[in-house]
Amino acid sequence: MNNMKEVDPHTTKRAEAFRMWMKAPMPMVTMTKTLDVTRLVRISKRHGLKFNMLMCWCITKAASTIKEFRLLPVNGKLIQYDKLAVNVIVTNRNGRISSCDIPFDNDFAKFIKDYNTLTEQCRSECKDLTEYDRMVVGTSALVETELDSVVNMWSGIYANPMLFWGKRRKHWWRTRLPVSFQFHHVQMDGKEAAQFLNALQQVLSNNTDYA
């Protein structure tokens, strides 16, 4: 089943953004927000679930509520996707890194199963696993140190949105996590990016699917 198709940007709400930013030398925008992940940490410890796995599900859950995440500029074209995935960086058995795309599923148990199966396959086989027919949200957990923000380079190739974070920060009974969100200006404006970050905090704080 084909989950993607090319669309005429002039028939979408991103027409003006496509005209202005498609050929811009630096079309990426970075926004930062400090998230309260106290509840997620507690659930991770209570149920023995990986914190980063929970974060990835929450990120794509929030992204699924923002329609701009269904569009992405690819090779000068605007592509519309029906489904989402999340990318994680895996340290493989050779001590190097591999890229692993995990399909998003509203069914949290299904997502857990796919996450564990695919990351283990990626780790053991030392090869990238890519979901070409889904809009992939990238992630990078740089947990070796605390980070205030990350500004990524623009390669001119990958326009996918991406989130970065470092070590969690504990203060009294709360745990906070600064997150940097990078996105292509053709895909969305600051308003939609802010809505996504607010939606992400809502999922982190209130969602009961993984409780």
Structure explained in plain terms:
The protein has 211 residues and is of the alpha+beta class. The protein is 31% helix and 29% strand. It has five helices and ten strands. The protein has helices spanning 15-21, 38-47, 51-63, 108-125, 190-206, and strands at 4-7, 28-36, 71-74, 77-81, 84-91, 97-103, 135-141, 162-165, 169-171, 174-184. Strand 9 (169-171) and strand 10 form a beta hairpin. Helix 3 packs across helix 5. The longest helix is centred in the middle third of the chain and has 18 residues, at 108-125. The protein is globular, with a radius of gyration of 17 Å. The relative contact order is 0.23. The mean pLDDT is 94.
Secondary-structure-derived class = alpha+beta
Instruction: Please provide the count of β strands.
Output: 10
* Backbone shape: globular
Strand content: 25-35%
Helix fraction?
25-40%
The total count of helices amounts to 5
Low-pLDDT regions = none
Largest sheet: 7 strands, mixed
Distance between the ends: 32 Å
What is the overall pLDDT average?
94
Radius of gyration, in Å, reads: 17 Å
Element order: H for helix, E for strand: EHEHHEEEEHEEEEH
Short structural description:
The protein is of the alpha+beta class. The chain is built from five helices and ten strands; from the N terminus they run βαβααββββαββββα.
